[in-house]
Description:
The protein is of the alpha+beta class. Helix content is about 50%, strand content about 10%. It contains 21 helices and 13 strands. It has helices at about 20, 35-45, 50-60, 65-80, 85-100, 105-120, 120-125, 160-175, 175-185, 190-200, 205-220, 250-255, 260-280, 310-325, 330-340, 350-360, 375-385, 405-420, 430-435, 445-455, 480-485, and strands at about 125-130, 135, 140-145, 150-160, 225, 240-245, 250, 280-285, 290-295, 300, 305-310, 370, 425. Strand 3 and strand 4 form a beta hairpin. Mean pLDDT is about 75; it is low at about 1-30 and about 465-495.
Amino acid sequence: MAKQVPTSRLARGTKLGAVAASSVLRTQRTRLSMRGRSEAVRAKMAEESMIRTTEQVVMVLGTMKGVAMKLGQMMSVLDLDLVPEDHRERFQKRLAVLRNAAPTVSFDAMRQVVEEDFGQPLTAIFAEFDPEPIAAASIGQVYRAELRDGRVVAVKVQYPGIDAAVRADLKNLNMFRKVLTSAMPWVTPAVLDELRLNMEGELDYQTEAVTQLQIAELYAGHPFIAVPRSLPELSTTRVLVSEYLPGKGFEELRQFPEDERNRIGEIIYRFYVGSLFTFNEFCGDPHPGNVLLVDDGRVGFLDFGLFNRMDPEHVRFETICLRAAAEDRAEDLRELMIQRGVIDSPEEIGAEECLEYVLAASEWCLVDEELTITPELASGAFLLAVDPRASEFAGMKQQNLPPEHLFSRRADFLTFGMLGQLNATANWHRISREWLYDEPPVTELGKAHQQWLAENPPPAPTKTARPRSAAYATTTTPKKTAAKKARQPRAGRKA
């Protein structure tokens, strides 16, 4: 089916007509499907030298604390089944070093952190405090406690000295840039810079508590999303107190029947991705450890240390780019990226390469068909989009993704990875059309969400995004010198 969408339709704020919107069903073309691309990346991962180098990097990072655990979380979401089976067990043992890089700290030491921050004994604040942690965060541990008024709470406490250790790690990280990028090319300088800014911001639990309360109030009364209310008045820089939200963990959810996994997957997709286009803000740290199933059927979301608010115009840019890719409007997509500064070397990038690159990362939610997401599919798409050794999209990988979009694209990839671990199935494009085309929902969850939105309309977007912390304050594209622009590899992830 030919697509006749005039360029003039690209004007911001213009809604596509019914004819243009209905043409999203893509024609059969010779392009390589996402499944085919993922198989190609899987073959690349079979290289023994690559596996060995990655193991070496994991061991180096294993000497770090919060930084290593954060990288381990990112890797664990994306590479479960990508490594060939005969290498998988060995690689997972190495990866466990990162995932379990949190230091072993006695309860007495953790108790001292709480009492130092509160300036009074633990028993003056809590009637009960279970010394056994119920979860581990990247820079602390979570405990179950009871306030003196009877409320049951979760208390997240930073490891003693972790702030100094993380800042030291971040300084030392520059020393390992070349080693990291040679083994894991997706860990680009831009990713490491983002990691540094985010980790510094996550050290402030008081700010996180304020953010979490705002999100809990935003989703109050939601039919299938639960965010526990934090208690900023009882939170400090190193201690975060919030309502205790019991539920089943992600590993248990992975064993659920298909229908239940699909439902949970759609909710995860709506929360981590849909919220960006609905509220101009999103949680930037999708991770299985931050999701649980509440007894009443709602999906609970935890951990808001990395939460981002975007300028509505930047969100609008992502929307119209996704529309152009969904409709195969390659020339329009390329022109949009040139105007935005994503493509700063137009003479090197053709329209088809631009389109194929976006589809390599985001075809899963741009094609009007039912799709089961597997770990292999998610990991393959991620590595193909960012691995500079792959011959595909060499030109696009030399381009520049403005930092304000780096956060949202990473969140999109990590959400894709979580859905892959669930092996969730849906027509993801039909769900996304609610926010891409302002269409009525087609799923039962979508209808329930739409009704809730009608009864709880979101606040009008502000012209300028309100940064959550210093970690998100740097959102303007830095000017590049001629020398840097010449041939420095840059993150070029766009969807």
